[in-house]
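Entry 12.
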Amino acid sequence: MKSEEIAKLAGVSRSTVSRVLNNYANVPEETRKKVMEVINKYDFELNMSARVLAGKRTDTIGLFLFSVYDQKNPQRIYGNSYFGPFVEAVVDTGNYKGYYVLVHTIYNPDDCRRIQQTFMQRRIDAGIIIGTEKNEAIKSVISKISNPLVIVDYDPAEIKQIMPSDGKITVINSDDRKGMDECVDELVSLGHREIGLIEGRTTAYSGFLRKDEFRKRMAAHGLPVRKEYCLKGDFIRSKTENAVTKMIKLGKLPTAMIACNDDMAIAAAETFRRHGIRVPEDISIIGYDDSQAASLVQPQLTTVRIPFYKIAQKAVEAVKDMVEEKSTCYIEYVIDVEFIRRKSCAEPAEKGEKT
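Predicted 3D structure (tokens):
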């Protein structure tokens, strides 16, 4: 159905139909109601291409998921404990606020150009980028986009250095320093002194922050960070399993470990179990994220809850404000986290050595 037909059925002019479709304020409510009744009755769909050519908004957000690691895992996006909840929350929140969400996956740094292309094609009004790894390709893209962008999990200082002078960028991070402090404090309060870390990728801002704060908090308690107890898991289960197995074969373990995400914590716990090492009787484990699996595994995982839905809401709200020009060129948010105490931690056994 064309707008001329709607105008004829509603008994109004074509220009009035256009004003209703574009939500102009200068349309009498009774007239707006008549037009909308016709639109709803005949399932009229606005021609988006025509709107774009006319310089109108698309009411569409581009959600870009950046995952260049663990390429052999077909579930690394939608089966991921980090990306999965985020996609669901952004789509749900965006739809509630009247936005379509166009989801893109970035599997290779060279594909970062898709972000810029999507804006140039005028398919979206704004973008949300999640899971960004620090590399020259993404830095180059960010430095060239003046359209509204929300970036989750990125160094704010670097964004301010590289963003264009006419850019509109909101950066959202979880309070990972507070989260890691509470992990270390919990284990120290239980009596642990030999505490290890399963690191995420430090090219991700959250991975860097959690590792950096672990070292600082251990130092604040007067505890050494032992190299043999710090494993590189890169947020990937298979790498974590290999690293934990190697540590077990060396014959000496810490009394507790903190993993920089739940997937690695669960992978570590399963690996310990296969080698006859009990959690938490022989070794305590803390995760990070509070994924759905954290409360389902046995023992239930002590972890740090990141409020994915709240971050998604804030991201969509920031998009709306930037699109409607209600915000300044740069805004930064740090979202609070919550320590969740469950069953995977206990007081240390008398000896830190396990074979």
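Annotation: Residues 41 and 217 are 63 Å apart (CA to CA). The chain is about 40% helix and 15% strand.
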